């Protein structure tokens, strides 16, 4: 599949972080069960440094990599804000520029059903 086809489909990779395994599993399960994501990969072991309330903060976090379609992004973002444990969650959506046809077909078959 070429770059134009992937862009037309609007495949998105959405990134967010959470502070504990229980939150990661709850968020991932909710998004997949509600068909807002085809898959959520949970990657433990992040160390994040960031400014929060005027202080430099360092925390252990887990990264969630959410695979979805642009057509459901608004609903996914809204739901993620509802269930996310952070007051200001990181929600960063990246458009995939190339996606294999088989994977694209699978994502399209699972999201929004």
Task: Describe the protein.
A hairpin with a 2-residue loop joins strand 2 (39-52) and strand 3. The protein is an alpha+beta fold. It has helices at residues 3-9, 21-33, 73-83, 101-110; strands at 11-18, 39-52, 55-69, 92-95. The two termini are 23 Å apart. The chain has four helices and four strands, in the order αβαββαβα. The longest helix is centred in the N-terminal third of the chain and has 13 residues, at 21-33. The radius of gyration is 15 Å and the shape is elongated. It has one domain: Alpha-Beta Plaits (2-Layer Sandwich).
In short:
The protein has 113 residues and is of the alpha+beta class. 36% of the residues lie in helices and 36% in strands.
Would you identify the regions where 5 or more consecutive residues have pLDDT less than 50? 1-7
Q: Tell me, what's the shape? A: elongated
* CATH C-level label: Alpha Beta
CATH fold-level topology: Alpha-Beta Plaits
Average residue pLDDT: 92
Helix percentage range:
25-40%
CATH architecture: 2-Layer Sandwich
Oligomer: single chain
Number of separate structural domains: 1
Largest sheet: 4 strands, antiparallel
What fraction strand? Answer: 35-45%
- Calculate the terminal CA-CA distance, rounded to whole Å: 23 Å
Structural class: alpha+beta
Report strand order across the widest sheet. 2-3-1-4
- List the total number of helices: 4
- Helix-strand pattern: HEHEEHEH
Q: Count of DSSP E strands?
A: 4
């Amino acid at each position: 599949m070429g770059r134009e086809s992937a862009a037309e489909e609007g495949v998105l990779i959405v990134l967010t972080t959470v502070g504990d395994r229980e939150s990661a599993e709850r968020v991932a399960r909710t998004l997949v069960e509600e068909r807002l994501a085809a898959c959520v990969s949970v990657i433990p072991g992040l160390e994040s440094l960031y400014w929060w309330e005027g202080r430099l903060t360092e925390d252990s976090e887990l990264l969630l990599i959410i695979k979805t379609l642009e057509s459901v992004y608004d609903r996914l973002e809204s739901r993620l804000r509802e269930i996310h444990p952070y007051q200001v969650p990181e929600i960063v959506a990246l458009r995939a520029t190339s996606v294999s046809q088989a994977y694209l077909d699978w994502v399209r078959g699972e999201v929004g059903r």
